[in-house]
Structures are given as C-alpha cells and as structure tokens.
Write a structure and sequence with these properties.
Blueprint (H helix, E strand, L loop, with lengths): L7 H5 L1 H11 L4 H5 L5 E4 L14 E15 L6 E8 L4 E7 L4 H4 L5 E11 L2 E5 L2 E5 L5 H5 L6 E4 L8 H14 L9 H7 L4 H9 L4 H31 L13 H8 L6 H14 L6 E6 L5 H14 L3 E5 L3 H15 L16 E5 L5 H13 L2 E6 L13 E7 L6 H8 L7 E6 L5 H7 L4 E5 L9 E7 L5 H15 L3 E5 L27 H10 L7 E4 L5 H12 L5 E4 L12 E6 L7 H8 L9 E7 L6 H11 L3 H10 L3 H5 L4 H4 L11 H17 L7 H15 L7
Parallel strand pairs: 4-6, 9-14, 9-15, 10-12, 10-13, 11-12, 13-14, 16-21, 17-19, 17-20, 18-19, 20-21
Antiparallel strand pairs: 1-8, 2-3, 2-5, 3-4, 5-6, 5-7
Bound molecules: adenosine-5'-diphosphate and magnesium ion.
C-alpha cells in the first residue's frame, strides 16, 4: 500500500512516473493527488453550441472544423485557433502558446470540449477549454467508459499527459492509497464541517456529486491557507522573541526639538501610527512594521520621527530608497524638514543636532569616503542611500533602525545584507505607497505588523482626472498642451509621462499585444521632449528625465525641477514614487493604457501635492468598453488607493499578486486565490493563531508539524525574510 510520500514509480511504474516528473515536477503520490481537476464533465449533459450564453460553464460534443496557428509579430508567442461545429453552429476555441495541441485537434475528429463561454470581438469562444478527443469508431459513452462516476474530471494537461491519462494515474494512486493521517486537527475540521483529508482527496478526483466535490475543494483550499498562515504567524512570534535594543522615547532631545519646529500639525492618523511605532521601538525586540499609506499621506515625516527617536537613544538609522533620484530627494526633504537639526558638528548647530548623509553608487570617491566615515563613526545619525548602502565597505557605529522605502522594489537578500550591518537585530520599518487589500497584506506581509495612513494631510487640494481619447477627439491633445501652458504661465509646473525612453522598438517595453497597437506609435521621452519644446510648449522650459541618463544628470534635472528652473519634466515612470514637488499641478500621461491601475494612481500622486488643485490627463486611444479603457475610467473615477489596488490585483495572475518573493510558498498554493478566498484566509489566520497559542511547537500535532516543516523547508530559501 502507498502513502502520500510514496514514490510515484512504485505505483505507476518508471515510465509514467518520469513523464509526470518532467512535465509537472511531481515525484510522490501526494504531489499527484494534489493535482486537482479544473472542472468536471458531466456525463449525459451536453449543450448545443447555438444556445451558449456568455459566462456559461458548458460541455459540448463537436467536430473540429478547422485549426490554425498564428504567430504574434510584436512579441514572442502564438495563438492556436480551432473552430468546432456540432453540425448546426460553430464555436471558436483559442489557446495561447500551445501550438502543440494542433496535433491532437485534427480536422474532422470528434471530441468533448468544456470551458466557460467568453466573447471576443463579438464572437463566442472558449479560451483554453479542456477537452477529451474521441478515438475513431468510439461513441461518447465508450469514450468516457472506465470512469467510475458520472463526473469526469478534466485536468490541466500537456501533450504527453492528456487529461484522461492523468485521471488514470490518479485512479491508480487512490486505489493504492493506505489510510492517511490528517494533518489538520480534528477540532478545526469539525468547526468547519470539513471532510477528512482522505475523503477530500477521493471526492475532488472522483466526486459522487458536485456538492461533495465543492466541499472537498474548500477543505483543500483551507489547508493551503492554514499552513501558510501557520508559517507566517509562527515567524512573527519567533521574530518577536529576538533581542533588540529598546529605543524608548526620550523627551527633550532631537525628536522634541524637531516636533517643536515642524511647520504643520500631524494628522490624527499620523499621530496614531507614530504612537504604534513609538511603542514598538520601546520594546527589547525588533519592530517589524509595514507602514502603508496613500501617496502624499505623510509617511516620510513619520519615518523621520522614528529615525530621530533612535538618534535620541544614541543609535543610527538607515533609509533605503529604490532609486538615486529618490535617495537624493529624501536627503533634500529630510534636510529641509530638520533645518539646523541636521547641522550636527557645525558651528552654531543646536544642541541635539545630528548629521544626515547620502550614499549612492554615482558619488565621487571623495564624497563616498566622507559618507563612509560619517556612518562608521556614528556622526551621521541618518544615512540615506540606494543599494550602495548594502556594499561591504559600509559600516555603522550602532545601526538601530532600518527604514525601507517602497519595499516591493527590494529583494530579500538586500534587506538581509543591510540587517547584517547591525550587531544586534535592528528595528525595521517598511513603507509602501501601494495600498494592498487586507488579505493580500495578510498573505504577502503576514509576518509584519501593519499600520495604515488613510487620510491625506488637511489643506491638500483635490486632484481631478480625465480620460482623453485622441482617436475620438484628436483636438483634445492640443488642449492638454494648452492647459500645461496656462499652468506654467501661472507659475506652476507639470509632468508629461511617456511609457518609453526612445522609439527603439527592441526596447523592453510592456507591449500589450492584444491592444493591437504598434510600439512605433507609442510616445517616447526622447522624441516627445524636443517635439514639445519646439512645438506646443514653445517658450516653456522643458527637460527630459529617464533611467538611461547618468546619475548625475538625473539628479541635476530633478534638483532643477524642484528649484523651478524647469517648468515641464518629460519623463518615464522614474518619477513614479516619492517625487515631491508641490508646485507641480498638471500631469499628462501618454498612452496611459500601457500602465497598470496602481501605477497610474501612483504617478498622478505627483501632482496636487501643494495647495493648488491637481489635474491629471490620461491620454489613450483605447476605445470605450475595452478592458483598457475601463481600467482608465476606474482610475479617473476614484482616488481611493485601496479600491484601485484591488482592481489592479484582480486583473493579475495569482503569482504576480503574491510577488516573486513568495514563489517558494506559491508552489504550495494550488487552489488558494488571495482575493477570492478572503473569508477562508481570515478563518485560517484566526485558526492558526489559536492553535499556536495553545501549542506553539505543534508538539501535540505531529502530522501537522511534519507538513509545516516541509513547507517551511521548501520556502526557506525564497520566502520573504523580513526577520
Ligand atoms: P508620502 O511619503 O506618504 O508620499 P510625504 O511624507 O512625502 O508623503 O508627505 C507629502 C507632503 O505632505 C510633504 O510635503 C510633507 O511635508 C507634507 N505633510 C506631511 N504631513 C503633513 C501634515 N500633517 N500636514 C501638512 N503637510 C504634511
Ligand atoms: Mg514619500
């Protein structure tokens, strides 16, 4: 008899086991039994093509009428289109990058096709349907014969391993399976009315009815959520037990002086978050906190206050920024906010002043040497930098706090490299301006405490966004440039954003091939800047900014823009995060449909940061009702970053939702979808917390402890390690 850990070869023989390994990476019976059907073909329930409605889950019996594969010109890949007919009507089936299926779907052959009816270009179609071809001379019943029940499982398949073959293998495994031990504690199963693991595995593959298949699927989805949350909660607990230097608030130091000089009042939200951070820093265990808040919600001030609290305790803080532009800007902002408090060591500096220094890759050797000395001696209480901060030559006297700005751009190793520079684990504050829905945060950042800034500081002018379609109303683009001229004549500044640096087609732009636009038609910074400067924006000071400029030139351009020596910045998304020029009031985003929803929201956050109202124009050729246009309308219609990030995430694949950093645990997530399964994740989180509070080492739950160890080992190398 077999267990879930038995080798597939022991049940299926070497050849089949090898095929399952090369195709899917499955080695054990458990691996294969966790390969779940996408849907079930119901014997005797076939639909007529003529009656199909958009959104229906259907199975049809049809004959292949034609099949053709076409390559995409603008990007790698191909599309196989197969037209099938049931004698009266036709239906098209599409497969992206699966040209090999053309061999299986021979013209004239019959098969069962199952999928969800969609509509593309006004035609009904099944995208990536499941199918079962019927061998010549067989009828439908004969084709599905050999399957025990009424429900025929349809599996994700490949050319070598078609669905029916996988079903056979699974049937053999189920037949060979000994009684298995359930890792999930019985009291949790009882609470939710879930079947045992054994029942669930049998029922999802060979359901007696759809209801029990559904319940089994829910239980197996729960398993994934539960193990993941168990992992996250236990990591969080473990980090809490590490030692760190407590940095309790000290009155009468640099932080007090800073607060007294601050030209504005903190918002209620800022006060609340500041209190949370203050409490964390006062603990003898490292803080692990995520600070999320809308663009412009005032995260930087909060982070700076935390850094100053650490300086008050005799320590240093490092601020890690994703780009040189942002690091330089952080330096300017922080020096401005601190005033003379940043003049430590200079004559006439106030008593509690410190020094703020910058470390980036493009500095001269002399600048770098100075900065290194300031960091190593502890004279610089605040060290701001890019990944250059991570190099081995950088040393701190007493690194007490690491602030990571725009965390998603930093990888695990980078954070670890910086942490290694502290003798005792430092406190960590991660800031992100991309708000994430609660369960996503719980999954992606499940081991961090989360603080959220929801309100924008008072006195902030509202921002208006319009979608401008230049196909429908070509004259409106001229109008956009006029608006910029008007603002500039009133002393304001503007951004023009393009999706590309140059018109070079080979450039790695994200070409949405389905939109059908040629990359040649896209605006680029290198073309647009001179065209505008000599044309519609004649007489206005225009400058280009993009990632291919030297660090020095980028810096100089940003500084000149901040100093209002430039009126209009024509830029790529390098200005996406953090850039803060309150005098900028208009942003024109070319080919806006090239950008994601959250990205557009981030971009437009660059305007309306002062007291004058902001205007954002989304220029597009996307026609009404298309997904691209709907996305743009959503951005124009809402300024709620949480709502927009949800829309954004809903359109991505799960792997992208969880991010590359979660790839390790992702392989354990076959059924779980963070947005769809919110309730399940919340339940799993609560259950995981409850169980760990009763038995933190899972001593009483050996089987679960083994599962846990397996997932932990698999994910250890890749898992976000913020600890
Ligand atoms: P974020 O980093 O969250 O995008 P910032 O910290 O850069 O936001 O703040 C945006 C702008 O608002 C800055 O110019 C900052 O000085 C200002 N600001 C921050 N907090 C307040 C407040 N409570 N009242 C008024 N202005 C504020
Ligand atoms: Mg900021």
């Amino acid at each position: 008899m077999a267990t879930l850990d038995s080798k597939l070869s022991s049940v299926l023989g070497d050849r089949t086991a090898k095929a399952l390994d090369t195709t899917f990476g499955y080695r054990t019976v458990g691996d294969l039994l966790h390969h779940y059907p996408r849907r079930y073909l119901v014997r005797g329930e076939l639909s007529d093509i003529a009656e199909l409605q958009e959104g229906d889950e259907v199975t049809i019996l049809a004959e292949v009428f034609s099949a053709s594969t076409r390559r995409f010109a603008a990007r790698k890949g191909n599309m196989l289109e197969v037209v099938v007919t049931d004698g009266t009507s036709k239906l098209s089936l599409t497969f992206f990058n699966q040209a090999w299926r053309e061999k299986e779907l021979k013209v004239g052959s019959q098969g069962l096709f199952a999928g969800k009816v969609g509509v593309f270009n006004g035609k009904r179609q099944l995208a990536h349907p499941d199918y079962e071809m019927i061998a010549d001379g067989n009828d439908v019943d004969a084709a599905v014969e050999g399957f025990a029940g009424k429900y025929l499982p349809m599996y994700p398949a490949s050319g070598k391993l078609p669905s029916w073959k996988i079903a056979q293998c699974i049937e053999l495994c189920i037949g060979a399976l000994d009684e298995i031990e359930d890792p999930i504690p019985q009291f949790i199963l009882d609470k939710h009315g879930y079947p045992s693991l054994q029942q669930a595995l049998v029922q999802i593959h060979q359901p007696a009815d759809l209801e029990s298949a559904e319940k089994s699927r829910e239980r197996l989805t729960f398993d994934e959520a539960f193990i993941l949350q168990l992992l996250l909660v236990s990591r969080k607990e473990k980090m809490k037990s590490l030692d760190a230097i407590a940095r309790p608030r000290r009155e009468g130091g640099i932080l007090t002086a800073f607060d007294q000089a601050l030209p504005f009042q903190l918002t209620a939200g800022q006060h609340a978050v500041a209190a949370e951070i203050e409490e964390d820093l006062a603990q003898p265990h490292p803080m692990h906190r995520l600070l999320q808040g809308e663009v412009g919600s005032g995260k930087t001030v909060i982070a700076l206050r935390a850094m100053l609290a650490v300086v008050d305790s005799g320590g240093q803080a490092a601020l890690l920024a994703p780009t040189e532009v942002l690091a330089a800007q952080h330096l300017r902002t922080i020096e401005k906010l601190m005033g003379s408090l940043a003049h430590g060591g200079m004559i006439g500096a106030p008593e509690f002043s410190t020094r703020v220094t910058l470390l980036t890759g493009s500095q001269s050797a002399a600048e770098r040497k100075d900065a290194l000395a300031l960091a190593a001696s502890g004279e610089a209480g605040i060290v701001i930098g890019t990944h250059a901060l991570l190099s081995a030559s950088v040393e701190f006297n007493d690194l007490g706090l690491i602030v990571v700005d725009e965390q998603h751009r930093f990888g695990v190793e980078q954070r670890d490299a910086l942490k290694g520079k502290a003798k005792i684990p430092p406190h960590l504050l991660v800031m992100t301006a991309t708000p994430i829905p609660r369960t996503v945060a719980m999954t992606v950042f499940g081991d961090l405490d989360v603080s959220t800034l929801r309100e924008l500081p008072l006195g902030r002018a509202p921002i208006t966004t319009h979608v401008v379609n230049t196909l429908e109303k070509p004259a409106f683009l001229e109008r956009a440039w006029e608006r910029i001229c008007e603002e500039v004549s009133q002393g304001h500044q503007a951004y023009v954003v393009a999706s590309r640096i140059s018109a070079d087609v080979s450039e790695d732009a994200d070409i949405d091939f389905l939109m059908g636009t040629s990359p040649l038609e896209l605006a680029s910074v290198e073309e647009l800047a001179p065209t505008l400067a000599t044309g519609p924006l004649k007489g206005v000071r225009v400058a280009p900014l993009h990632g291919r400029l030297s660090g020095e030139l980028k810096d100089a351009t940003m500084s000149a823009f901040a100093a209002h020596e430039i009126d209009v910045l024509v830029s790529t998304t390098v200005i996406e995060v953090g850039v803060d020029v309150p005098n900028a009031t208009v942003m024109v985003i070319m080919d806006a449909d090239r950008f994601g929803v959250s990205q557009l929201h981030q971009l437009r956050g660059r305007v309306g940061r002062g007291t004058s109202p902001g205007l954002c124009l989304l220029i597009t050729t996307a026609i009404a009702e298309t997904p691209a246009r709907i996305r743009l309308e959503a951005v124009a219609g809402s300024t709620d970053g949480f709502e927009l990030s949800r829309i954004d995430l809903e359109q991505r694949r799960e792997g992208d939702v969880l991010g590359a950093a979660q790839s390790g645990s992702r392989s354990h997530l076959r059924l779980l979808r963070v947005l769809r399964d919110e309730d399940l994740i919340l339940t799993a989180r609560a259950d995981a917390e409850e169980l760990l509070s009763m038995d933190s080492t899972l001593t009483k739950y050996q089987q679960l402890a083994r599962e846990f160890a397996k997932v932990e080992a698999d994910t250890a190398s890749e898992f976000i390690d913020k600890g």
